[in-house]
């Protein structure tokens, strides 16, 4: 993939099924953090608030990933994430098994609180 300059460029280069999954995730993140701004960080779509990156998302060959940019959040929500492959700071999902909308929103709001507290 060519280095994208915008989220739209990134998504335009993604195949249809995973693009739909990422667009859904994008919408959920926007709903949970309407004051946040979008951009590209680490060559993937990401959202920023309070001067810090909140979350990001990307497509890979066999899955999509949601990056809460906080290993602590992956641990806090470990029970809710059962059935998904996780690493210290990444949650893998597929278009066929997307992350639950309510969970995405809870994680984004928790990340907002975490970032806001750091800025205080």
User: What number is the mean pLDDT?
Assistant: 94
Computed structural class: alpha+beta
Portion of residues within helices: 40-55%
Tell me the Rg in angstroms. 13 Å
CATH level 1 class label: Alpha Beta
| Relative strand content | 15-25%
Which sheet architecture does the biggest sheet show? 5 strands, antiparallel
Give start-end ranges of low-pLDDT stretches.
none
Number of strand segments: 5
Describe the structure in your own words:
This protein has four helices and five strands. The protein is an alpha+beta fold. It has a single domain, classed as Aspartate Aminotransferase, domain 1, CATH 3.90.1150.200. The chain has a five-stranded antiparallel β-sheet with strand order 1-2-3-4-5. The N and C termini lie far apart (38 Å). The mean pLDDT is 94.
